[in-house]
Amino acid sequence: MGIADRIILTLYTFLMAVFAILLIAATLGILPPELFISLLGSLPGNWEFVAGGILILVASIRLLLAGIGAFGESNMLTLSETEAGKTVVSKGALEEYIADIAQELYGIYGVKVAVTTEEPNTVNARINASLEPGVNVFEITEEVKDNIRETVKKVVGLEVKNIEVYFKKIKNSGKDKG
Hints:
By secondary structure, the chain is of the alpha+beta class.
């Protein structure tokens, strides 16, 4: 689910919560029934309610389709397809595998990976990680990229075209500057 879908879902959830509170309040007699009768009486010919209803319907359909995976990239990568069958790996499994490869190197920890597909047998990886003190950023970056490209090609059979490495934290060595 993308950021737009998450925003729609948040607004939709808020709207449904307000509706649920109003329904509970009406059922318990906290809100007078005349309020709802007058509201329902003002609906015919009022285009604002039509527009609101259409927006809610479109949001519902969009969330339903996003929930079943009809939008965006598939979460599965097909590695091979023959007469005998199909070999598929999930993006989540590949992301965890790449994170494990990166964390095997000394000085790198807290790795999170996002994989996108480029072509049928090519992927891109975005890596967010943290570094231990005293590690050369440029050397570790190249080593991570080389290890990932080599290992993923050998084990999974996919080319890793573009690898972006972002370091969100570099630990302090803890030495005083006295």
